[in-house]
Amino acid sequence: MSVPTPTTEKQQKTKTQKDVPWNVVVLDDPVNLQAYVTLVFKRVFGYPQERAEVLMMEVHTQGRSVVWSGGREKAEFYVQQLHGWQLQTKMEKSR
Fold it and tell me: Has residue 12 been placed in a domain?
């Protein structure tokens, strides 16, 4: 009979944090034009025109939009890419 190996709370917490999806959130700003934001979404994420326009309008009307959700490393990559295009972007844990 084998004895189960105890797991520490830290190990469980780390695993849970990795499993949580992360959201890439674009915030509204007074500088970038709507057409530019749409273009960026198409270039960075490969979204079709219609999807990019819907997300851009969410940013414009609601002040923010979750433009992508998934693993932490990829979310960090997308935030970096969007910052390079001068968009105000952050990432947050999905709820």
Answer: no
Compare 78 and 20 and report the one with higher pLDDT: 78
Q: Write the CATH number for 60.
A: 3.30.1390.10
> CB-based burial of residue 55 (10 Å sphere; 0-12 exposed, 13-18 middle, 19+ buried)?
buried
Q: Are 87 and 26 in contact (CB under 8 A)?
A: yes
Q: Is 67 in contact with 25 (CB distance < 8 Å)?
A: yes
Tokens 């979204």 belong to residue: 47
What number of CA atoms fall less than 13 Å from residue 43's CA on the CB side? 10
Domain count for the chain, please give it: 1
Q: Is residue 52 part of a domain?
A: yes
Neighbours of 77 (CB within 10 A): 13
- Does residue 81 lie in a domain region? yes
**pLDDT one-digit tens code per residue, 11-56:** 555 554 556 899 999 999 999 999 999 999 999 999 999 999 999 9
